[in-house]
Write a structure and sequence with these properties.
Blueprint: H1 2-28, H2 34-40, E1 61-65, E2 70-74, E3 80-87, E4 90-94, E5 100-105, H3 108-116
Antiparallel strand pairs: 1-2, 2-3, 3-4, 4-5
């Protein structure tokens, strides 16, 4: 009976050591996030040319949204500060409330460049 207890305790100790090793191994080999998988995948990625967007609020950070064809503007504190999107032969700039604030007409060269992409 005493030998069985020692064998049982020894088996539990071995299993807990193996479990700890597996847990450590899992920590080292974490699965990639969905964003990392998307970047490395062969799926078609949305692309857009934002080089013709000229009126960016001073000091704002630009966040590209190529899938929607627009640029978001954020203040240094991260607050939304408007956005701009292409509409036909123009780029419309909106303020933080979503009201159109400025319209930039695209030149024929800029329109041709858009068509080529």
């Amino acid at each position: 009976m005493r030998c069985m207890r020692h064998a049982l305790l020894g088996g539990i100790a071995v299993l807990s050591t193996i479990g700890a090793a597996w847990a450590a191994d899992d920590d080292q080999h974490k699965q990639p996030s969905m964003h990392q998988l998307y970047r490395s995948s062969s799926l078609p990625h949305a692309a857009a040319d934002f080089s013709m967007f000229h009126f960016v609020p001073r000091g704002d950070k630009m966040v590209e949204e190529p899938e929607h064809g627009r640029l978001l503007f954020r203040t240094k504190g991260g607050e939304p500060d408007g956005f701009a999107e292409r509409r036909g032969g123009a780029i419309v700039y909106y303020d933080r409330r979503g009201k159109a604030a400025r319209v930039q007409r695209l030149t024929p060269d800029e329109i041709d460049r858009l068509i080529q992409h």
